[in-house]
Structure formats: structure tokens, C-alpha cells
Amino acid sequence: MKRALSLSLLALLLAGCAAEKGIVDKGAYELDARRQAQAAYPRIKVLVIHYTADDFDSSLATLTDKNVSSHYLIPAIPPLHQGKPRIWQLVPENALAWHAGVSFWRGATRINDTSIGIELENRGWQNSGGQKRFAPFEPAQIAALIPLAKDIIQRYDIKPQNVVAHADIAPQRKDDPGPLFPWQTLALQGIGAWPDAARVAFYLNGKPPSQPADTPTLLDLLSRYGYNVPENISSAQQKRVIMAFQMHFRPQRWDGVADNETQAIAEALLEKYGQG
């Protein structure tokens, strides 16, 4: 009788421990999660925006094939279901998607490992008279993107400077989402970085905006902000980096040429968000 009572008390004690906050019963074993390490960091740090350069059906087929993938795909005009736009989730957020490819941002490579990718159905650019002509984004598509991006940013505490274009993290290979993507509109919604106009004017300091600036100085600023600017970069590659930055932050002119306004924007961004 005494032995049975002791066993019952022991069982109750163990049950109480298992029910204790931070003790997780896994069936064949228990996990004690009451002491958490300080040197732990979230895996998701970056949100990357893309365009598909194709129609929706072709994009969906490509992104569900074996070679590339993305966490989300948003149609140009999302279908409404009970008044809500439908977005396709192709990869769970806790899984790695192959959307960034060879990439670099703020000192880190392998951006696929630390990012969530959102693809927007958009035909990208067409060659017209030797110039790239980009397709605009549908307002309904941007309206669907905004709450999704906000949710992702809130879940993972993604910093504004880490909401980036595919072109930002791979400027030698990519142009997307291009100069018609409404980065400033998104920044007003708390999505991504944007320079303060007053600080751009401060750094411009009355200089003509389109006057050429020192290219090495600008590239140093862009490198400090987060872009990949290796020491042996060619003049053509330099132009691609500057162009990617301009498409994001000065989309009115993205010729890849260093000028006073581009440099002032880079200085204002570094002041606001710090170095990468």
C-alpha cells in the first residue's frame, strides 16, 4: 500500500513537471526549453521582391518545377474570394526556396538561406528601340502585396534596409522588380527603406543633381550600405551596381552613372539605416 502511494505521488510529481511551462512532452522524451541561449539569431532576415517576367500560368509552372522556387506568387490581378485577394504560397516559410540564386547583401552570401521570396506576375522589360521598357504593376497586385509583406516583416522583425529588390542582391544578373516598382509607396506603409527628402537635400547642398560625381566615392557608399562591390569590379559591373541602386531609390533616372543626387541619396540612407 505504501509502495503504491509512493509511486502515485512520484507519477503526480512527474506529471506536474511535464506540465510546467517550458517542459515539452515529446512522447518518448521530454524537452526542457526553460533556458534559452543568448547567442541565437532568427534565420529569416531578408525579404526579396521579384517579378516573374512571364504570365501567371507559366510562372506557376516554373516556380513549382525542380529548378527554382519562391515562397509566394502574386498574380497581376489576384482573384477575389469572399472579397479577399488570393495569393499562392508555394514554399512554407520555414523551408528554403531557391529564388535569390548567387547573391550578396550587407556582408552575407547565400541569401536563399536567410530570406523569404515574393514573386509578382509581371512581364518585366521589353527591348524597344534599344532601350529597356518595363511593364507597370497592377494596383490590385500591390494592394495584395502590402498586407503580406507587413505580416512577414512583423513575424521576423525584418529591418527596412533588408527589404530588397532581386537586383539589389544580384545586380550583375538581375533587374527585377525594376524602376516601376513602387518602393516609395511601400515605404510609406512601413515596408522597406526610403531616404528622407530633407536629408537628401542636405547632402546635395545646392549642387546640381545631375552633375557627375566621383564614381569610386559613390561605390564606396553603396558598398557600405550593403551592395556587393568587389575590389576587381569592372567599369561595366560598376554601372550595373549603380543602376540597381538607382532603380530602387531614384527610379526617374537609372542610367548607372554616378551623379550628385545618387550620392546624396546614398549618404542619406547610410545616415538613416547604418552600414551593412
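[next item in queue]
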Amino acid sequence: MAIVVAKFGGTSVGTGERIQKAAKSVVNEYMQGNKVIVVVSAINKTTDESIKLVQDSMGKLVTEKQLAGILSMGEMQSVRIMAATIESLGVKAEYIDPFSEKWPVITDSNYLEAKIDKEKTEEKVLTYIEKLLDQGIIPVVCGFLGRDLDGNVTTLGRGGSDVSAFLLGQCIGADEVVIVTDVKGVMSTDPRKLNTARKLDKITVEEMIDLANYGAQVLHPNALRYKDPSIKAKIISFEYGDLRVQGTDIIGPAYPEEDVITITKLDEQLAVLAVVGEDLMNKPGILSSITERVNEHNLTIYGISTGESSITLFFKYDDALKAHEILHDLVINGDMLSSISLGQKIAMVSLVSHEFIDTPGIISNITKPLHEENINIVELSSSQTSVVIFVDWEDGERAYNLVKETLE
């Protein structure tokens, strides 16, 4: 007998027909001898409509506590309808909202971005939710919501319903977490933009986080903090009305529940190579010409940046000497570049964190201590989850230690 946590997103319960289809898929799973915990989001657009009503009626005068209570209404409606629909199909169900004695998700009192008390939540899950399962009752739990120690309703922030599903799955030791949404699974790209998009059979947690950080809205990375590696997880479409349908499996362990910043310094010396020319940004194919030449000689580029009249590349020092010769041929035998320069020895410090995307001022926090110590930054590149700093080689160790001390 397996324990399955099935989470239904707002679109999946957006109409009466979809609610019935969702309920039937839960009952079918139950009839196969499995225990099922249902997590439900607010019915499609309910939360957005509530936020607009609040903005139109009182604007910024609403308190966080009041707003959390208002936002909770959508989920509290959903669980009641879902539980009643399951019971109409002949199986016992019980809705559980933050006002229920059996409510499991305990948090601090940060009403709109509540932090989960994992220990107390697990205790509640094993005391109440497990007991309901043993009695043959399907618990239908509000997603997105929590309750603080004073009994106030809190919300879990973005991706809150997905967080609820993975959290409950981890606390009860579920066999599988199924995220039911409006897509067939994780796609190779947005099918609304390219009709050649195809469904992926599996994706790692790390890949899923990176996709989410760059705009994919299938699953919020916060939820993957609670993805236990021993628990199967998948994303499927509500259209099939079947929790057994193949979607996209999410494989691998969770990423840390607390933010972890990985800071590393490359042990080897790099060197900077700059090629210059007029109006390079408006010369199609210039980058591919450079990288193709470098690739033909199996040289690795550690960093690259483009400017109006220059392209800067970073190589291991010995490789830079080879690249200098290779790219000089491109300069003298073509008409797009005018000169190439081999610069100083460089150290590279890399920082990686999935929290960077939500941390205003992170670049300033990293560069300020270097500025105060008169360390010149030769080049800096950043993405949603990483920052890479290039400094003079003799400043490398000092830069690494300063950044490490500041961020840790």
C-alpha cells in the first residue's frame, strides 16, 4: 500500500468538470489500495481577484495579517468543494484548513512569507494526517497556507501549494508526490512559442530549479527544498484524469532548505585576451567566428563579454598563449577585427546560489568589500544564480577571502 500526495493547481480545479475529474482520479488511486493525501490550490484566478479587490478597496492600508486571512479564502473554498466531490463518489474525505484542529503546517508569524517549523509540522502530520489515512479517510489539505503558534493564518509565499505537497510528502514518508497542472509535464521549451516542443520524460532537481529561475512556471524552486530523494515525484496534466499517467519525473535530491552560497576560486591562472574592432555589436557572426576557431583547438573559454568595440575572453594561461596566435590569424586575415591583445594574469572567483535571483543588491554586497580594499575587478559576469569575478592574479586569494567573509 503506497502513500501518494496529489497536488491540484488552480487551473486543475478551475471548473466543476475539472474538479470532478480530479476527484475521480483520487478515488481511482484509492480504489487501487493506496492512501492518498490531496493538496488543493485556490480555484483559478481566485487569489488574483482577491488581491485586486484589496488593492481597489484599501490599497496599502491593509495589514499583512489581514491580507493573509483574505488570501486564504480561495484555498478554504477549494478544499471544501474537493472533499465534498470525493465523498459524492463514495469515499470518505475530510477537508483540513488552518482553523481545523488537525491542521498540520506550522509556521512563524511572517504572514506573507512564512517560514515552516519542520519539527512541529512533522509532529502534526504524524498525529493527525497519518491517523486519517489509517482510518481510510482521504485528507484534503489547503495548499499555500500555514498557521502560526497563536493560531493565525499565514501564507507560504510563491509556489506555496507545491511547497505544501512536497512538505507533507516528506513528513509522512510518502512514496510519491504528483503535481497535477495544466501542462503534460516539463517541456523542452514553451510550446506556445515553438510547436516543436516535446515533453521530457525526466528532469533533475538542479535542471528544474534553473528552468524555474529563468522563467518557466511549471514548478517553483521553493518546493524542491522539500523534495526527498527517496520519494518519487512527477508533473502531469489534469486533462487525463489519471494519477498514473506518465508525465515528467523529477529526479535527484532536494536543494538545501536554507540558502547555501558556494564560493570557489579557480586554482589555475587565467589570462585575458581582448580582440577589438569597430562596431562589433552590429557585425553578425563575429562571436561564432571566434569561438569556432577556439573550439577547433579544444581550448576552454572561462569567460566572455562583449562591448561596442571589443570582445574579452578568459583562458587558462597556457591556452591563452595558443588562442592569441590562433585569433591573431583571424584578425589579419579578416576585415571585422583590427587588433588583439594578450593581457595580465587573472584569478577567477565564482559564487553560486539559487537565492541570488531574489536578493536585491547582491552585486553591491559582493563588490563593496573589494572596492574598500582597492582590489580592481577586471571583469564581472552574472546570471540569475551565479556571479563570476575576474581580478588580478595577485589579488585572487584576498578577493576570495573578502567575499567569503562578507557573504558568510
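[queue empty]
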